[in-house]
Structures are given as C-alpha cells and as structure tokens.
Predict the 3D structure of the following.
Amino acid sequence: MLSGPSDQDLYNELAFYTLETLELRDPEFIHQHIVDAFAVQHAGPESKPIAIVFGLIGLYLYLEKNFTGRQVQRAHMQMARNRKRWSAPSIPQRSATIGVADVLAAPPGPARNAMIRRWCEAVWHDWQHGRSQIAALAQQELNIVADPQ
C-alpha cells in the first residue's frame, strides 16, 4: 500500500513556497506564520515548551495584534534573549480541521496566502484554553497590552 507524502514533506514544500517564491516580494514574511502554525499543530508530549510557547505567541501576535511575520520574528528574538524555562499550555485533544495539505491545495498566490491565514486561525482556535496565558506572557515579555476577550 502506497502512502502519500507526510505532513513534514508537505510542510517542506510549503516552506519552499514561502521562502523561495514569496521571500523577495513579501514584506509580510508569511513564512514565520507557517513555522508557528505547523509547530503548534504538531505539538505532542515530546515537544519542547519553548517551541509551543513561541508558536502560540506568534499566532497570537499575528491574528490578534496584526503583526507581520517580520514583527513576529523580532518578538521571538526578543523573547529568546530572556533565556528561561517556558511553561506551555496543555496540548489540546483535537487538531485543527485545516492542515498543511489544505494550504498546498490552494493555488499559489493570494488564495494560498489566504489559506495560510485560515490555517493559523484554525490552529489558534484549538488553543483558546491557553489564550490568557499567552496574552499575559506577551504583555510581560514584550509589553504588548492584552485586549479583554
């Protein structure tokens, strides 16, 4: 029985698209958003808390604070300077209904870029139980005021 490409293979293809195809023309740097969405969507017991926290911070800043990928990247760098032990929210039981395969199924260009956002939204939705923790962390580490929700 033949199986299709793994999620990691599909992610690598999408990463090529966001880095090679869009990088020179994309001041938004959407590559950062796929890194965060993939890391958080594929979080498991073996995942390092820093990977989960940074991914969730990235999704929070992108979706709720309208940060570009470049701004998220800078926020990650600022947080990394404060080397400490990060505490991640518990991993949700369900996984977003949109995945990297759905993103790649969209035609390259605006449709695929819009699907990247929808993927990020779906992943962030699954982690809403940790939103207040992530918002508080963004305020503490990055001085970003959380909006009440």
Q: What stands out?
A: Residues 7-142 form one domain. DSSP finds seven helices and no strands in the chain. The chain has a mean pLDDT of 91.
